[in-house]
Write a structure and sequence with these properties.
The complex is a heterodimer of chains A (272) and B (211). Helix content of chain A is 31%, strand content 22%. Chain A is built from eight helices and ten strands. Classes of the chains: A alpha/beta (272), B alpha/beta (211). The A-B interface holds A 16-20, 27, 31, 47-52, 54-56, 58-59, 61, 76, 80-81, 84, 96, 143, 220, 223 and B 1-2, 50, 53, 57-58, 62, 64, 66-68, 92, 96-97, 100-101, 104, 109-110, 113, 121, 123-124, 192-193, 195-197, 200.
Amino acid sequence: MVEKGKSSLVLIGHGSTLNPDSSAPTFQHADEIRRRKLFAEVYCGFWKEEPSLREVLRMVESDDIYVVPNFISEGYFTETIIPRELELTGPVTLRSGKTIKYCEPVGNDPRMVDLLLHRARESAPDVPPDKASLLIVGHGTSLNQKSAEAAQHQVTGIRERRLYAEVSEAYMEEAPFIADWRKNTSQSHVVIVPFFIADGLHSYQDIPVLLGIESAPTAAASQKEVFRRNPFFLDGRELYYASAIGTDPLMADVILDTIERFDRKHPDDTAA
Amino acid sequence: MISDELARLIREGYNALGELEFTESPTGYRLYHWADRNSLSLAQVYRSAEDARQIAKYDAAGAYRALKGTPNLPRGWILELGNIKDLKRALDYFYPGAIATWLAYREGKARPVCLRETLNRQTGMYRVTRKLTGSQAQSLVKEFCRSDGRCLRTILWGIEPERPPDFHPSSKSDPAVDQTGQNRAALPFLCMEACNLLVAAARTGLKKSTR
C-alpha cells in the first residue's frame, strides 16, 4: 500500500445501540491501519453510534478523504443511507475545498472467498471438507436484492474451488432461510460462516437461535466468558459456527486494497 | 490543527468537557471523571488513548452505554497521556466529535439542523417519524435528551425550520451552561442535529401511539 500521508481515512460502520460488539471490528481495523501510519488521520463513523455519520467528517482535518464502508455488501446502507448522511454526490464529492472519495464496501473485495474458506477451516480444523456442508449465512432483505447477491457471489466462488461436499447460502430475512438449514444441507458435518461484519446482534445473538444451537439470544460475545464451544450436536448432525468474517484481522488489508481499487478506478481524482 | 487549538484552550483555563476534567501534568495531560477529582490517588491508571474507548463503553453496572452523552461514565480511572494529540483522541472516544463540532460552530462552519429536516430525510423503518407532531417532539426531547440522566449535550436545533430551540429548561440550549451543574470552565458540548437514538425513540413512540 502506497503511503497516503496527506489523506485521511474514514471507516463507516453500522454500529448498534443494543450490542456493544457491533462496532468492535471497525475500531479494530482502524487501530491496525493507524498503527501502520499510512494516513494522516483515521476515524470511524457510525449509523447507530457516535461519532454519527453527520458528525464524523467535521473531525477530519485533511483535504483528501477516503470513505470506506465497513459493510459486507452493497445495498440500502451503501447506496442510500451513507451517501445521504455524508451528503455525497457520487464516487468523488468536492465540498468546501475537500475531496471526499467514496469507496466500495469491503465485502466486495475479491479475497473474501479465501477469507471465508480460511474461517471455515479454522472453525472446524478436524472436519474433512469433502465430507462437510459449508453454509454461508447472510442478512438478506426484501428492501434490496444486493445483500443476498453478495453472499451468492461468495458461494459461487467457493463452489468453484471444489473443496466442500456442498456449499449453500441462507439468510435471516429471505429464502432460503437459516432456520431451514436441516433440509438445505445434506452432510453430517455442517460448517457455518456468517457473512457479516461483526459478532453483533445478528451474527452472535440472532442466528444461533435460528439455527437452534441456542434457545434464546445469549448475552453479547464480549460479556461472555467463552466465545462459543464448537461443535453443537443437533438432530444427529455436528454444527460448527464461526465468528463473523468481518472480524478477521486481514480485513485491515482488505480495507487498504479497497482504497487502491478506488484509485485505479478513478485515476484523475487521486492526485493527493 | 484541532489539537493545537485544544492545547491553547487548556492554557486559557478550560478544564472540562461533559463529565470529564483534564489538566496539564508533568508528563503531558491527565484526564479523569470530575467526581474523582479529590480521590485521584485511588484511581486505576491507564496510559493509552485507546483505553478511553473501553472505559466509555460500559457504565458502572456493566450496561452498554449506547449514547455517549449520558452522564453515567464509570469512575475510578485516570488517563495519563503523553501529548495533546493523545488527549484529543481520548476525548474523541468519550465524546466523539465534540471538540471538532464546537470549533466548526464557533467558526461558522457548522449549522444546527432542525428536527423537521432530520425527520423528513428518513427512509426505510424511520420514514414513519415524518409524522411526529410538534408537541410530540417537545415532550420526546424533554424526556429523552434531559441533562439530568439522559444526555449532557447542549441542543442548538429547533423543531421547525427557522425556529430556535425551545426546550425546558432554557439552559439546555445555552452553550455557556455546564450541563453537569458543576459550573466549571467547560468546553461546550454541542448537539447540532438529532441523533439516530432520538429518531429511533420517535419511531418507537409513534408505533405505540398507533397501536
